[in-house]
Amino acid sequence: MYSVKVAALGCFGLVSGLAMAEKIPSVVPSPVEQAFIPLGFDDNDNVEVVLHGHFSNSCYKTGDVKVTVDEATKSITLSPTALHYKDGYCLQMQIPFLQSVRLGVVKEGEYKVVVENQPNAKTERLSIKRTESSNPDDYLYAPISSVAIRKETVAENNTTRSIMTLKGEYPYMFNGCMEIQRVRKYMSPGNVMVVLPIAEVVQGETCLLRGGDQKFERQVVVDEKLEGDILLHVRTLNGESLNHLEENY
């Protein structure tokens, strides 16, 4: 009886191990269609690019991305992977993904960007400028938590314009308060709109009128012509960024 019991447990353990093995995802190349590359990074920034594509069903998730920077040839190779859960229940549908990739600090220069295993992926050149300041950023940026663009009709002349809405929550401060002073924006090649919500620390009535509510919303008219897939790349407080894709705008 004892030996049979041990054998049965051994068989169960083997089956259980196989079942667990089947649940472990396989690592496959990620179906990246475009690498969005924002302008405006200096050689003291943690440079960022944003990958975009579509999974064919719900059994895929984004995986790791290997980054190789060759300063001699001024080229950057991105090797993105995806996790495939092949034995799961998969919804057959196109699922868009957006994946931010940090390259670290990159030396000044113009770099060619290549997505490994995806020769048809759209990319642009990455331009790194020499920094003119010892500060982490050129400006103090507001803490943006969401961004979106919508189209609206102007009743006066029956035309359509685009409105960008930025939302967030200011940090609590012991002295003064933070306030967005202006929003700069410019287009990068490859349909990337870089958004700089420039903030300042102010004193007085502005802080008193706000009371305890630190949430804010800022709307900006977008004059730039927008078409196709648009990446909104918003610089935020503490050197972070917020990326949002407007597909088929």
Folded structure, characterized:
With 249 residues, the protein is mainly beta. It folds into two domains: 27-129; 144-246. The chain has two helices and 16 strands. It has helices at 2-23, 205-210, and strands spanning 26-29, 32-36, 41-42, 47-57, 60-70, 75-84, 92-104, 109-115, 126-129, 144-154, 159-169, 177-188, 192-202, 215-222, 230-235, 241-246. The strands form four sheets. Strands 1, 3, 5, 6, 8 and 9 form a six-stranded mixed β-sheet that branches. Strand 10 (144-154) and strand 11 (159-169) form a beta hairpin. The radius of gyration is 24 Å and the shape is globular. The N and C termini lie far apart (71 Å). Mean pLDDT is 88; it is low at 1-12 and 14-20.
Features:
4-stranded mixed beta sheet, 6-stranded mixed beta sheet, disordered N terminus, 249 residues, 16 strands, globular
The sequence of SSEs as H and E is HEEEEEEEEEEEEEHEEE
Strand content: over 45%
Q: In DSSP terms, counting alpha (H) and pi (I) runs of 4 or more, how many helices?
A: 2
Mean pLDDT: 88
Which sheet architecture does the biggest sheet show?
6 strands, mixed
Radius of gyration, taken over Cα atoms and rounded to an integer in Å: 24 Å
What's the domain count? 2
State the total count of DSSP E strands. Answer: 16
Structural class: mainly beta
The residue ranges in which pLDDT falls below 50 over 5 or more consecutive positions are 1-12, 14-20
- Give the end-to-end Cα distance, rounded to a whole number of Å: 71 Å
Helix content: 10-25%
Shape: globular
Topology, pairings included?
Elements lengths: L1 H22 L2 E4 L2 E5 L4 E2 L4 E11 L2 E11 L4 E10 L7 E13 L4 E7 L10 E4 L14 E11 L4 E11 L7 E12 L3 E11 L2 H6 L4 E8 L7 E6 L5 E6 L3
Parallel strand pairs: 3-9, 6-8, 13-15
Antiparallel strand pairs: 1-6, 2-4, 4-7, 5-6, 8-9, 10-11, 11-14, 12-13, 15-16
